[in-house]
Design a protein that fits this description.
Helix content is 41%, strand content 23%. The chain is of the alpha+beta class. The strands form three sheets. It has a five-stranded antiparallel beta sheet with strand order 3-4-5-7-6. It has a three-stranded parallel beta sheet with strand order 8-9-10. A two-stranded antiparallel ribbon has the order 1-2. The protein is globular and about 65 Å long.
């Protein structure tokens, strides 16, 4: 007798696999799935056809050149005036939440937090006249893009904090606890939002700040210029991410934002090497606001003696209440840190 619960579970696993991998394998998704589950291509094609009929997949091309992609289940966009009447929780309740549809509670929690934080930033900080919002939902993921026509986030941070370079604004954002309006904002929204989504990026001017869940923060200078600020957030519909776990990873027993991870390579502009004390001072600016600071050296192949000494001896000695750690170091970098006499707690 057929075990129907097991059969349904297997069917769901196969179809979820197809949905999760079809965009990376639009032409060979059938072969990939057949190998993964040790079933025939004919069996896979039945699952694909079912997903096409459910409008989860879109098929284009003839038999020989046929390829598949995710069908948009929802695509919606709207423009709002950036005035005092605009309230992020109203937009969320009336326009966004109903269009996201039935999603797991942890996913909805992340969307509510990230969307309202980013829209509030546009309302309170952009100095723009309008904000455009785009929502796209497929069977695999949902994405929301928020774009305003204001001054631009990196330019504004540079101006308000009197920074030497717009690129330094990205480094400060990555650390957290950064706001141009400390009386009304904690500076936590972008930091935590970037950590909870599968993909989170901010474009403004010729700079792009990109954070992906599997990778470290990156800074790119792009040829095209973005007016104002554009924020993109993407999350798998079946994501296991939990916003409480993310908060817990960076807060202490008093629920204070006490820990940060500093992506060291964001202090590295262009082809320059991290060798000077001035570069180190740029890196440690404001980190005395945290109890625990983790320097992530992913992508950094070498540092200078003065750079290491300024962080791991001078700063460490001047701020004994700040607990310093480092991760993802190559042998050469670790040797320089050791030369500074630093011993992790």
């Amino acid at each position: 007798m057929t075990d129907m619960p097991k059969l349904r579970k297997k069917t769901e696993e196969i179809r979820q696999f197809i949905i999760a991998h079809v965009e990376q394998h639009p032409k060979d998704i059938a072969n990939l799935t057949a190998k993964q589950f040790a079933i025939t291509r004919q069996a896979v094609n039945k699952h694909i056809q079912n997903l096409v009929e459910q409008k989860a997949l879109l098929v284009t091309g003839s038999t020989q050149s046929r390829h598949y992609s995710l069908q948009p289940l929802e695509r919606w966009e709207n423009t709002y005036p950036l005035d005092k009447a605009l309230e992020e929780h109203i937009v969320w309740t009336q326009d966004i939440f109903p269009r996201l549809g039935k999603l797991p509670e942890n996913v909805i929690d992340i969307w509510q937090y990230g969307f309202t934080e980013m829209l509030n930033n546009a309302i309170d900080h952009s100095s723009g006249e309008k904000v455009d919002i785009l929502l796209l939902k497929t069977a695999a993921y949902s994405e929301i893009v928020i774009g305003d026509n204001g001054e631009g986030i990196f330019k504004k941070i540079q101006r308000v904090l009197n920074l030497a370079d717009e690129r330094q604004a990205l480094l400060e954002l990555a650390k957290g606890k950064l706001t141009t309006d400390p009386n009304n904002h904690s500076g936590e929204g972008i930091f935590f939002s970037s950590k909870v989504f599968d993909s989170f990026w901010i474009a403004s001017g010729n700079l792009l700040f990109d954070h992906r869940h599997e990778y470290n923060d990156s800074l790119d200078e792009v040829e095209f210029s973005t007016q104002g600020t554009v924020v993109s957030m993407l999350l798998k519909n079946n994501s296991s991410h939990n916003i409480t776990n993310v908060f817990d990873a960076f807060t202490d027993e008093d629920y204070s934002f006490a820990k940060t991870i500093v992506p060291v390579r964001l202090a590295q502009y262009g082809h320059e090497k991290l060798i000077s004390r001035s570069q180190a001072k740029r890196l440690v600016a404001r980190i005395d606001r945290f109890k625990i600071v983790v320097f992530d050296f992913e992508g950094v192949e070498t540092i200078g003696q003065a750079f290491a000494d300024e962080i791991f001896r001078v700063f460490s000695k001047q701020h004994p209440d700040v607990e310093l750690h480092y991760v993802n170091v190559c042998k050469e970098v670790e040797q320089m840190i050791s030369r500074a006499g630093f011993k992790p707690r």
